[in-house]
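Note on ligand handling. Small-molecule inputs were canonicalized before submission; formal charges were left as drawn, and no protonation-state enumeration was performed. Where a ligand contained multiple stereocentres, the stereochemistry in the source SMILES was retained. For fe (ii) ion, this procedure yielded the string shown in the input block below.
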Amino acid sequence: MRTGPLESLEQWDDFVKDRYRTDRKEEEFRVFDESSPQVVKDFYRQNHALQTREFVQRKKREYTPLNKARMGVWEAMDKLQALVDDSDPDTDLSQMEHNLQTAEAVRQAGYPRWMILTGFIHDLGKVLCLFGEPQWAVVGDTFPTGCAWSDKIVFPAYFYDNADSGIAEYQTLYGAYAPQCGLDHVDMSWGHDEYLYWVVRDYLPEEALYIIRYHSFYAQHRERAYGHLMSAHDERMFDWVRRFNPFDLYSKSHERPQLATLKPFYEDLVSEFLPAQLRW
Ligand SMILES: [Fe+2]
Ligand SMILES: [Fe+2]
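Structure output:
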């Protein structure tokens, strides 16, 4: 299923990984804008033009009542897998593999069980595709809407086409928000991060919820471009977002994780924290 320029949803994840390659030199950082694959540029052009504050608020009204579906974690994973495989015949198990590799890397580093679970489910919000959402409303770096866009966001020039550029209030540093108001009051661009946060918010510790909700907010967790909207509490919680990021980016291992062997562990882990059915 392709509802956008990317050949598959992974293409965005791969682009982010490449951007933050550990061997990338400082000078190379601004170059990716020009040399990136055309499909990635087309994707960000849509994402930046169409993620307005009004759009985000509309999606929150639509999705946060969680009345679209009822399914457990395993069913959601199967559905996501089916959808992704369909769009990209080469990926063979890539979603499940990424979930398992991230989670296993967290486990090997000795982190607590809630964080292993977070690794396992952090991308499940991509089931937004099931409900017909286009790529630009599912993946991509996330950023605050309703205030000036930082030039630390990838491809900042593409915001030129966003309707919010015509709203003077939104073009100021704080925009619709108060200084240090806390991210919970900020309308972040809509996608798999924000969505999954709403689905699991009653069940997981706050640190896990921060990781899930802000793992694609590179402009803050990498670039620290939005400190003016962060509360002191956000700043503390972002330590966890930063701790998690390398597991998301760099956990690809040579051996493929074997779901058959690992499944009992993850079944226990999922049922320790989450009900058999979640509302989506
Ligand atoms: Fe993600
Ligand atoms: Fe991920």
